[in-house]
Amino acid sequence: MTSPAVTRNLADWIVGVRDDDVPAEVRREGVRTFVNWAGCAVGGASHETVDAALRAVDPFSGPRKASVLGRSERLDVLHAALLNGISSHVLDYDDTHLKTIIHPAGPVASALLAVAEARPMSGRAFLTSLVVGVEVECRIGNAVYPDHYDRGWHITGTAGVFGAAAAVGRAIGLDTTRMQWALGLAATQASGLREMFGTMTKSFHPGRAAQNGAMSAFLAEAGYDSSLQGIEAPRGFANVLSDKQDYGEILDGLGRSWEAALNSYKPFACGIVIHPTIDGCQQLREELGERVSEIAEVRLTTHPLVLELTGKRTPKTGLEGKFSVYHSASCALLTGDGSPTAFTDEMVNRPDIMDLRDRVQATADPACHEASVDIELVFRDGSTVAKHIERAIGSREKPLSDEQVSAKFTHQAELVVGADQTRRILDAAWGVEDLADAGEVARTAATGARAAAE
Amino acid sequence: MTSPAVTRNLADWIVGVRDDDVPAEVRREGVRTFVNWAGCAVGGASHETVDAALRAVDPFSGPRKASVLGRSERLDVLHAALLNGISSHVLDYDDTHLKTIIHPAGPVASALLAVAEARPMSGRAFLTSLVVGVEVECRIGNAVYPDHYDRGWHITGTAGVFGAAAAVGRAIGLDTTRMQWALGLAATQASGLREMFGTMTKSFHPGRAAQNGAMSAFLAEAGYDSSLQGIEAPRGFANVLSDKQDYGEILDGLGRSWEAALNSYKPFACGIVIHPTIDGCQQLREELGERVSEIAEVRLTTHPLVLELTGKRTPKTGLEGKFSVYHSASCALLTGDGSPTAFTDEMVNRPDIMDLRDRVQATADPACHEASVDIELVFRDGSTVAKHIERAIGSREKPLSDEQVSAKFTHQAELVVGADQTRRILDAAWGVEDLADAGEVARTAATGARAAAE
């Protein structure tokens, strides 16, 4: 079985990228990726999922050198990577590489920022490693998507571990061979099943990918060897976890065309496939005013994947609501909300929202693009209104502006750490490239004694 | 897709097994499993693989409540589970569930003993949890073997994580629902690629399975929820990681017929498929005496899997030698050795052994059983001698006696901790069921201040 030296060439590139090799517009998207991630990590920090994870890992924490964003607890670097990865994903509000549905920042930024607290690095070096990590996971994702995802793998976990290993490995100065080992150790830990969607374990995936990726880099640094061909070997990652292997997606144009520049940021706190529906329902609500109370029926036509991923008819919890296009449509029409507050247990069980939810019909149509939706409202008087959403806000075609990224950050972080600290974290995150010590962002985002003293 | 409630019924059984439910002969095999594991963990403790892993994880260790067997370092429970799992496998000398080629004790005992040091349990309770963990991983392995293994998964890692979660979950008293969560968290971390064979990362698999399984149990205990059908769901473990799913292997006769009673212990420190060859070559050496120096050619006929797994023609390191049926045959004929000392860098590069190795021919014959071999020696004078090994020593048909298990333990442990401590560990391990505190075995097996004081 012949394949190019994928792992070696990729490792070569990872360790060789200099700060100046990353074009300004790619660095800019990297900063937006980082700001969006930090907002999500702070915004998710008070979630019960994070509480439970902290209860479990706290007794095993090593030297508490790293911050849990939005909280007062400190943990060792590896456990902080896990926790920040969990909180950044728990509201399903994070970033998306739309070609693969990878949420790139969770595994990479969670690992890298925790490492930066223990092994200081400049903001500029930090950002280069962040972009490199995102690039690696998205390219590996491209190589195996969609077969890999269709088989049942949660690609944010399985591809994400490579991104974390690459980012941390580059940041701590691995040579090519050790980077190959780190990628091999990542390959053998690539895991995460889509069966876990709708439970706390979904958020575990980016967290564990961050932790395992960082661990892979530290093991390689310590001389713990591994396969040199972990990605492409006959029994390596791509062949074992996928029926599709397109290595050109990994190596072609490396350093010239950037997947990391294609990242997008969710305006809504749920699976990306519901976004066109929420966008359309919000617009309809604006246009209809009072008439929204006269809706008899809502008819959605979507790509089959939308119902496969988010077809929960009667969600009982906020978390399940994120996987219900029915709840999302009803909630957006009646309240206009698509933020984390739209996906609380209370909102999912609100009688008027449940009532309209039960009158939402959804039809799967393979001819409908995954990122589009057709919405038809039928009113009590029999009249109808229709809306087609070609691409939702937050997509690559209609990206959030910097101001919208900041507003999203503020909206969710304020609920957790208040307005003053939110502003400080936001300023630090946007200015990460100018920091002498990137770990400062994490410390600014921690609560407790230090934050109170400021 | 209908399937029985595999995860729920299995979890129900795990949490319900009482000490008395495990028949005496199964408990006895459990003790043998534990003794063999402890010997391997101590025997492997001075290996460079363990040194490298310790360098990597030591900076992240939490409260040092658990021992690394055969060493003076102490680590938190999760990292101790990782390290003991690595050392118990690094010499490829551990136990084997022959139906699946799972090495059962590595994931289960490494996790459970580390937990027992922090959360004391009686030796009797410890042994029940150990047997339950082994039973769970072997049954899950049976359900997906051989497709799962053929696809490229290192089944000791992928099935092992369930065994560790079951053993630890039972030991810490999870209820059925939380045990289902623990199995779900294990399912989503089931990983380990066969591509890693021949590198340090192979031993990482049982270690990480131990660590991840224990973590799964602790997360579930803390209320971190997961799928209730992690094993059998359409996108659960069995469907995503295998094309074969035979759930009867998991549920049928649970508690009545015991896979844990079928464990076997390697007499030789290498892949089980080479054992018939070494056994035969040792016997031939005994029979031939001086004539062994007149061998011109060695002709082996084996099952194709033997060459697939151990077909390294020119191994350069001791570790590679374990994957070379050529080296193993030559070394057994010229030195009689199949223990860890047969697989050192020095032995693999000894001129006379290399010379005969290059004159070993191996032919794959699908008609030959995996556990059999035909050996033909051709002498310089043209004469030949043939030997057929139907089943090797150490197989279920020719199991090691308790005395042979002890001798194997002593042979390898003495090289690491000396004769006195070896005797103390061996006594403690054989007597584990009578201990008020099973963790005593781990403390007895640690070196350094405490051991020196005794």
Automatic annotation (TrEMBL), chains A, B:
Family annotation (Gene3D superfamilies): 2-methylcitrate dehydratase PrpD (3.30.1330.120)
Record domain MmgE/PrpD N-terminal: where: 9-247
Gene Ontology MF: a single term: lyase activity
Name of one Pfam family that matches: MmgE_PrpD_C
All residue ranges annotated as the MmgE/PrpD C-terminal domain in the record: 268-430
Family: Belongs to the PrpD family.
Protein name, as recorded: MmgE/PrpD family protein
Organism per entry: Lutibaculum baratangense AMV1
